[in-house]
Specification:
Helix content of chain B: 25-40%
Distance between the termini of chain A: 67 Å
Structural class of chain B: alpha/beta
Helix content of chain A: 25-40%
Radius of gyration of chain A: 23 Å
Largest sheet of chain B: 7 strands, mixed
CATH class of the largest domain in chain B: Alpha Beta
Strand content of chain B: 25-35%
Shape of chain B: globular
CATH architecture of the largest domain in chain B: 3-Layer(bba) Sandwich
Oligomer: heterodimer
Largest sheet of chain A: 7 strands, mixed
Distance between the termini of chain B: 71 Å
Strand content of chain A: 25-35%
Largest interface: A-B, 100 and 97 residues
Number of strands of chain A: 24
Shape of chain A: globular
Number of helices of chain A: 15
Number of helices of chain B: 14
Radius of gyration of chain B: 24 Å
Structural class of chain A: alpha/beta
């Protein structure tokens, strides 16, 4: 038995960043992880491997669609799916080994195994009980299940299985038009699958700005995605190599069947707190099965904290990381802070989609007067020189004060462009502040400035 | 001879000129613009835009070739063959499209566009000589936005096999052996692109290193990439002669004299302002060396005569010209405006890109104690998924309060990160402010936050 100032449960981006920060702040820290490698969902079976596949398949798309235009002639590119998966695995290994290195560097003990909390101040891993003055739960989330749909991770897969399919399916049905479904759907679309997305709601990527939702869906349709909206999936049945997906249309209750070679279930994620023993500890939960925490990320049991996907809020690695740092600071007696108003989100499709802050819908609901500044990438030289002039930047600002309330980008490299708006929103910038900042030419970020100008007396290149 | 009257005449249709004219017209000023050649000026026709298009094509060509052998990403292409005519046709399409955009922008804004060579008769009168006859324009305000042209190397006048950047972008074939004289950003950008397209490139630089405005560490990744690409870099070397008959350059360096056989020579030894032939002599405008001296309202020594862009002292950058253009348009329209930018970003589209804004480490140190932190892309997940981890982000902050004074970066996609850097400096942010802003995961922009964390407390991943 060993004794620590802090034991972090879970080594995903929330957990490992929290552990590193605790150690940096002089606390004796351990991190419990039962997986073979550190890094949690994000590094092992989430953000990182999916981005590696998206990058590879984006290059494939470039080669197939744009090379001839650019004067690059040759035979059609071929895909070696095993090798592509190998590249992805290499990227994952580099990332997870990086975390392992950081643990050694910061003298953090990795306790291998799955944790439970028999009582406050104690963490049980295997047969061993470790003492910890503070326990931080960062156990993350898992794919939500759907009644009637049995996941075997071979034919009917979650995002995890979708990263390791044996072969590229001829027909792929994606259940759920959220970020994960559309990203992984894009991977297989580019690899040649016929992709049909079945979504319960009438819009893609729920919660996002309505205009972006519509344009995004239209863009994906143009790429060959099929959408069946307002459809409730009843069941999936595996029959040999084939999977049947039965769904009901909400509008007329009619039942339909789709046939597929593989089905990706991407209907969201739920907190993963199994086996921690939270009930016995009397830890308060929200109605949605999340751990309830106070302002300092402490639960109702003193000395037990929780961060990341297992508490309220968007399930995003960078939100978890920020909470991990803040919770570590609270544990160390400092003042941790997370600005929940400025948490960006990125979808790595092509074009990319990125957003931060309020949407038009949320502002209308709040009754707040706002103005919209927009700029299309068609008017951006850099985008044209990359054959990627699809999409636009949209900035929402307070009608009176010009303060930026939100930003939505669909277009090339949107994920990198949004950080400028995050910094601006963090310091309470007006759209004019962005407009008056000199932006380098020729860059895509000029479109962000033009949208900011459009909040005032008009964009230049529109 | 036709005589016209207008409230504002803009001479030059480059990014400075057309932005000034269209903005002024939209603010209600009666505006004319005269362009000698093609709308869009150097930037759009023979500068930033076609070079970025060429770089884009060259990058993809090089990537495809890399993937053709033992490609890492699982896409095998047969080694592509370059059809440079198609590449050029595409580049021409991009510039034609943007040129059309500028023409329609001016038209929609209500600017009258004239074609011809402008010459001042006096401070309010300009004569425009065109094939169709001469026109005299009397204007209350005149803006000189005539830009710049490639500087000649004494003893090596351009023409034939001696190219300036304009001629290099108009080449009909990729030269087999190309010498580039001058390792500034234009020489490096074009030299690298042609090397990727198959030319054997020799870079000749009189100084001891490339990109003299940057420190050694910032240019190291570029030098490494140049060497990987097989570019021969000859620093501390002067050109002493050229024999066109044999295609031989005579060189001299510390070791002695040598010769180099090449097919084409590209001279990129800087640019010179276009202030001759305008009749400026008669106006007796106060000059600053070869440049027109202006105050913070871009006004020259003569009331009502403004100058913007490359003819004024300062970095020759399209975005600086556009920023000046907006100020002048506002002033002419009767609004208060003045130049008060603290930061002008600069980007070299080398491989990898280099992006800088604000003070360099030595410049900052000259002002007082500084603290500097770097964060390497090697520890950035997004860079790993892009298989491109060369480079770093560096923040230079005032030691006493961590106010950000300068940011330098080199690595994948840093041209799009620089907007956020500029924002931070314009807003007078401290490193702590950037560190406390949630940056989306997994993006390259996280490296910026990590560098800031390094200053504020400690990085999470370093």
């Amino acid at each position: 038995m060993s004794s620590y100032d802090v034991i972090v449960i879970g080594s995903g981006p929330g957990g490992y960043v929290c552990a590193i920060r605790c150690a940096q702040l002089g606390l004796k820290t351990a991190c419990v992880e039962g997986r073979e490698t550190l890094g949690g969902t994000c590094l092992n079976i989430g953000c990182i491997p999916s981005k590696a596949l998206l990058h590879s398949t984006h290059m494939l798309h470039e080669a197939e669609h744009n090379f001839a235009t650019l004067g690059l002639m040759g035979d059609a590119p071929k895909v070696d799916w095993d090798k592509m998966k190998g590249f992805k695995d290499d990227v994952v290994a580099q990332n997870t080994k990086g975390v392992e290195f950081l643990f050694k560097k910061n003298k953090i003990d990795w306790i291998k195994g799955w944790a439970s909390i028999p009582e406050a101040g104690k963490v049980k891993v295997g047969d061993e009980i470790h003492e910890a003055k503070n326990i931080i739960i960062a156990s993350g989330s898992e794919a939500a299940s759907l009644p009637g749909v049995e996941v075997d991770e071979k034919k009917v897969v979650t995002s995890t299985g979708a990263l390791t399919l044996d072969k590229v399916p001829g027909k792929l049905v994606v259940i759920g038009a959220g970020v994960i479904g559309l990203e992984l759907g894009s991977v297989y679309k580019r690899l040649g699958s016929e992709v049909t997305v079945v979504e319960y709601l009438d819009v893609v990527t729920p919660g996002m700005d309505g205009e972006i939702q519509r344009v995004f869906q239209r863009t994906l349709k143009k790429q060959g995605f099929e959408f069946i909206m307002g459809a409730a999936v009843q069941k999936t049945e595996v029959d040999g190599d084939n999977v049947k997906v039965t769904y009901k249309l909400k509008k007329d209750d009619s039942e339909h069947v789709l046939e597929a070679d593989a089905v990706l279930v991407a209907t969201g994620r739920k907190p993963y707190v199994d086996g921690l023993g939270l009930e016995a500890l009397g830890i308060e939960m929200t109605k949605r099965g999340q751990i309830a925490v106070g302002k300092d990320w402490q639960t109702n049991v003193k000395g037990i904290y929780a961060i990341g996907d297992c508490i309220e809020g968007p399930m995003l690695a960078h939100k978890a990381e920020d909470e991990g740092m803040a919770a570590a600071e609270c544990v160390a007696g400092k003042h941790g802070h997370v600005n929940y108003g400025v948490i960006p989100g990125v979808i790595y499709t092509a074009p990319e989609v990125a957003n931060v802050g309020e949407t038009e819908e949320s502002l209308k609901a709040a009754g707040r007067a706002y103005k919209v500044g927009k700029f299309n990438f068609m008017g951006n030289g850099r985008a044209k020189a990359m054959i990627a002039a699809e999409g636009f930047v949209k900035i929402l600002a307070d009608k009176e004060t010009d303060r930026i309330l939100g930003a939505h980008i669909i277009g090339p490299n949107a994920g990198e462009l949004i950080h400028e708006i995050c910094v601006a929103m963090e310091f309470g910038a007006a759209a004019e502040d962005v407009a008056l900042t000199c932006h380098a030419h020729p860059t895509l970020s000029e479109a962000v400035r033009e949208a900011a100008l459009d909040c005032g007396d008009g964009a230049i290149h529109a | 001879m036709t005589e016209l009257r207008t409230s504002l005449l803009v001479i030059g249709g480059g990014p400075g000129g057309y932005v000034c004219a269209s903005r002024a017209a939209r603010l209600g000023v009666d505006t004319m613009l005269v362009e000698l050649d093609r709308l869009g000026g150097t930037c759009l026709n023979v500068g930033c835009i076609p070079s970025k298009a060429l770089i884009h094509a060259a990058d993809l060509f090089a990537t495809a070739q890399a993937q053709a052998g033992d490609g890492v990403c699982g896409i095998s292409v047969s080694a592509p063959v370059l059809d440079f005519n198609a590449t050029r046709a595409w580049m021409d399409g991009v510039t034609a499209n943007l040129r059309g955009g500028v023409a329609s922008l001016l038209k929609r804004s209500g600017v009258k566009t004239l074609q011809g060579r402008a010459r001042f008769l006096d401070g309010k009168t300009v004569e425009i000589a065109a094939d169709t006859g001469d026109t005299v324009v009397r204007a209350d305000n005149i803006v000189i936005a005539t830009g710049s042209r490639p500087a000649d190397l004494p003893g090596l006048p351009t023409g034939g096999n001696i190219l300036d950047s304009t001629a290099a972008l108009a080449l009909e074939d990729v030269p087999e052996r190309l010498a580039v004289i001058g390792a500034g950003y234009i020489g490096l950008e074009l030299g690298t692109a042609f090397a990727k397209l198959g030319a054997r490139v020799t870079l000749i630089e009189a100084a001891d290193g490339i990109l003299p405005q940057y420190d050694d560490k910032l240019t190291r990744p570029v030098r490494r990439r140049l060497s990987d690409l097989g570019l021969d870099l000859k620093t501390g070397t002067r050109v002493t002669g050229w024999d066109d008959a044999t295609g031989t350059l005579s060189l001299t360096d510390a070791e002695g004299d040598s010769t180099l056989a090449v097919d084409k020579v590209l001279v990129t030894v800087g640019r010179a302002p276009n202030t001759f032939g305008l009749g400026l002599e008669e106006l007796q405008l106060r000059m600053d060396g070869p440049f027109i001296q202006v105050d913070d309202r871009c006004q020259s020594s003569m009331r009502g005569v403004f100058a913007i862009g490359d003819v004024t002292p300062g970095p020759m950058l399209a975005h600086r010209a556009m920023a000046q253009a907006e100020i002048v348009a506002d002033i002419v329209a009767g609004h208060a405006a003045a130049w008060d930018k603290t930061a002008i970003p600069a980007v070299c589209f080398t491989d990898p890109e280099i992006a800088t804004v604000g003070l360099s480490p030595p410049e900052a140190e000259a002002q007082g104690a500084v603290e500097t932190r770097e964060f390497s892309f090697r520890a950035n997940g997004r860079a790993l998924t892009l298989d491109d981890t060369e480079g770093f982000v560096r923040i230079v902050a005032r030691a006493s309060d961590h106010v950000v004074l300068g940011i330098q970066a080199t690595g994948p996609g840093v041209s799009e990160l620089v907007a956020g850097f500029t924002q931070a400096i314009e807003a007078g942010l401290r490193a702590e402010d950037i560190a406390a802003t949630i940056h989306p995961h997994p993006t390259l922009s996280e490296a910026v936050q990590e560098a800031a964390l390094g200053l504020a407390s400690m990085p999470n991943h370093g």
